Amino acid sequence: MIDIYLVLFSFLFSCVITLYAIPSLIKLAYQKRLFDDPALEERKIHKYRTPNLGGIAVLTSFAFTACLCISGNLLPYANYVFASGLLIFLVGLKDDLAALNPYKKFLAQTVTALIVVYFADIRLTSLYGIFGIQEIHPVISYPFSSLLIVFVINAFNLIDGINGLLGTISLIVSLTFGYLFFRMQEYGLALLAVSMAGAVLGFLRYNAGKARIFMGDAGAYTIGFIVSVLAIQFIELNKPQQLVPVTDSVIQSVPAVTIAILIVPIFDTLRVIVIRLVQGKSPFMADRNHLHHRLLDTGMSHTQATIVLSSFNVLMIGTALTFQQIGTIELLLLIAITALLMNTMLWLYDVRQAIGQAQPLLVNEDSEKIYPLRDHAREVAEEALQQYEEKQHQN
Q: How is the chain split into domains, by residue range?
């Protein structure tokens, strides 16, 4: 059993390295003119050129701390995890420095997923009765797990749209997994999670509020990949036959709890895909329909929108852990209903705004019809009164 102080050390050490590294990266970015320029894309929210090399500091501090603190017996497949993480980081860095073809990015993400799925055997083998499926045949398990990893990688990249959001959600997710793995006595995965949490916390010092640096695709891809590994292992290690005989470590309704932990990136990604398909657009076409965009449209600042979405994520985690005993299907329905309720509130706001904008138009159109009728009626009345007065004068 490892000491709790080693977990705290990995968290703080990773955070300190990031805090130390980022100012140098910001200075380097200005010297080499390596910016995310909002003038190059109309839908960009930020107004000023900002360095997007934050992922370099996050990966460096995370990888160094994890390699320093995790011994081979705690995480025997760590070599495949770090090899895949380095690959996906390089793909993201290439995309940050010079736009990469979407098909090449997808291919690289798939190769990254296949490394850990096939060589490290990190894959889903059971759906816990969802859709009536218990065990997953290996022929389906390998490609399904690979696609799931690719989905989570892109889901975390898609929420990187406003200052502080990706970092805050990643911090919440990593700390939650770290805590749960520690309770399960899976100390290698716990150290992996808290090392990532510390790196992200250090990054938030320069990204929250008025951002001095962005995470970039390199950081978002790396975080998404590590989180996908943690999520799959969390589901697999809690299968009934693999539970350790410690009552406190038993987590029920594991797939639903995992979805609750990742609710913001998962729900946001599924939401925008459905909206794009309904509108007849490609699901891969960028737009402003993400949850953080909708919150900004209500008048919120970046910080306020981040707080709302982060609070929602924490609420869903608390709800899932509190009601985990009700069953996987039932808990999934509860999570889905809650998420759809939030989406409905945003939809009602959009409807209210549309009605508010339409009312002046209706008033103007009605005025164009009513005012001429009123003037005509007045002319007729005046003419009749004049004729009546003339008759009275003649009499």
A: 4-253
